[in-house]
């Protein structure tokens, strides 16, 4: 039975921790007091296409609780990764295994810099999780976890399989992380729409915005000779091609590619609501930075960074699809 600590447990961390606990792992959640106070009374995890569970987990705000864990899974927001690494460095023993289960493409390296005596693995979570009620978390879309294909990943793979949580070891995690980032370019569009994901993606103009951002990102990545993994049933270029299709045609294809809960929203939309800084600099911002590195422009993604920064400061966050598409076309 694996002993696992989830460091920075929010929606993703609580759901993954709860699912692993349901499979028999001994799980400790470490996070903000508001979240930990909710889950101490019990944690409920549900999902679109699998078992539901009510589990009891240890919950604390104290980083020292990670000290005895066989695995430490880091799920903090990207901007908090360096601080998380410093906290863990103070409590973890040499040789401990740390897994970065975060958005973005740099977090595992940031943790490696802070934790030279520990083994840090990159991992990717493809699905969306929403908090439905205090202590209740719902997986609102599909997909399998992916992790560096190394011996140190074996305990997590075993724990996931015991929990009926799909996971795949990969030898191309940088390509996987960039593939996830290209998918996550929708986070900003969804946040600026203020709508559930299903409703946003049902609007052709919002899909045009996403397709433009993805095509631009894929062009930059091609110039950088950075491979991008296929994480959906279709390759990333194909996804960008079908997004602008008429609604009736898009629905027929999309229903075969990925299911989304009608109430699912992006984590960036939650950040707006709770007054937290977003991860825009680690999503669209990474595309803009890579473009600049190669002497290229990424105006669509740069405009989305600008609009999200404005929304963080109280600016517009209820764009219609037509309004957002017009703003991007103006670039």
How would you describe this structure to a colleague?
The chain has 331 residues and is α/β, with parallel strands linked by helices. The chain has 2 domains: 3-171, Rossmann fold (3-Layer(aba) Sandwich); 176-329, N-(1-d-carboxylethyl)-l-norvaline Dehydrogenase, domain 2. It has helices at residues 11-22, 33-39, 81-89, 107-114, 154-162, 173-184, 186-193, 197-201, 204-223, 236-242, 247-257, 267-274, 284-293, 299-312, 321-329, and strands at residues 3-7, 26-30, 43-47, 53-55, 58-60, 71-74, 97-101, 119-124, 129-133, 136-139, 145-148, 167-170. The strands form 2 sheets. The chain has an 8-stranded mixed sheet with strand order 5-2-1-6-7-8-11-12, with helices on both faces. Helix 5 (154-162) links the parallel strand 11 (145-148) and strand 12 (167-170). 50% of the residues are buried.
Keywords:
15 helices; single chain; alpha/beta; 331 residues; 8-stranded mixed β-sheet; N-(1-d-carboxylethyl)-l-norvaline Dehydrogenase, domain 2; 4-stranded mixed β-sheet
Beta-strand percentage?
Answer: 15-25%
Order of helices and strands: EHEHEEEEHEHEEEEHEHHHHHHHHHH
Count of DSSP-assigned helices: 15
Strand order of the largest sheet: 5-2-1-6-7-8-11-12
What is the count of structural domains? 2
Note the main sheet: 8 strands, mixed
- Anisotropy-based shape: globular
Task: State the total count of DSSP E strands.
Answer: 12
Q: Looking at CATH, which topology of the largest domain would you report?
A: Rossmann fold
Q: Which value, in Å, is the CA radius of gyration?
A: 19 Å
- What's the architecture of the largest domain, going by CATH? 3-Layer(aba) Sandwich
How much helicity do the residues have? Answer: 40-55%
Model regions low in confidence, pLDDT < 50 over at least 5 residues: none
Give the CATH superfamily of the largest domain: NAD(P)-binding Rossmann-like Domain
The first-to-last residue Cα distance is 54 Å
Query: Helices and strands: which structural class?
Result: alpha/beta
Mean pLDDT: 94
């Amino acid at each position: 039975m694996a002993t696992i600590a989830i460091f920075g447990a929010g929606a993703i961390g609580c759901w993954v921790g709860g699912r692993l606990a349901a499979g028999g792992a001994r799980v400790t959640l470490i996070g903000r007091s508001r979240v930990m106070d909710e889950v101490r009374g019990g944690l409920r995890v549900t999902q679109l296409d699998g078992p539901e569970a009510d589990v009891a987990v240890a919950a604390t705000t104290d980083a020292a609780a990670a000290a005895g864990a066989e695995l430490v899974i880091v799920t903090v927001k990207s901007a908090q990764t360096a601080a998380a690494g410093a906290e863990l460095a103070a409590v973890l023993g040499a040789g401990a295994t740390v897994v970065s289960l975060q958005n973005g493409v740099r977090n595992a390296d940031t943790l490696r810099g802070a934790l030279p005596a520990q083994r840090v693995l990159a991992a990717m979570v493809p699905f969306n999780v929403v908090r439905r009620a205090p202590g209740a978390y719902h997986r609102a879309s599909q997909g399998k976890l992916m992790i560096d294909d190394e011996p140190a990943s074996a305990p997590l793979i075993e724990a996931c399989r015991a929990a009926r949580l799909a996971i795949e070891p990969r030898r191309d995690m940088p390509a996987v992380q960039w593939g996830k980032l290209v998918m996550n370019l929708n986070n900003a569009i969804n946040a600026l729409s203020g709508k559930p994901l299903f409703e946003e993606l049902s609007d052709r103009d919002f899909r045009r915005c996403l397709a433009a951002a993805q095509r631009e990102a894929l062009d930059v990545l091609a110039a950088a000779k950075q491979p991008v993994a296929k994480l959906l049933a279709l390759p990333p270029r194909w996804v960008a091609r079908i997004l602008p299709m008429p609604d009736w045609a898009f629905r027929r294809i999309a229903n075969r590619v990925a299911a989304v809960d009608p109430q699912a929203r992006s984590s960036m939309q939650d950040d707006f609501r709770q007054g937290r800084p977003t991860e825009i600099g680690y999503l669209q911002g990474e595309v803009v930075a890579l473009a600049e590195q190669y002497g290229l422009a990424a105006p669509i993604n740069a405009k989305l960074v600008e609009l999200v920064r404005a929304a963080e400061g109280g600016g517009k966050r209820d764009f219609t699809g037509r309004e957002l598409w017009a703003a991007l076309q103006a670039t």
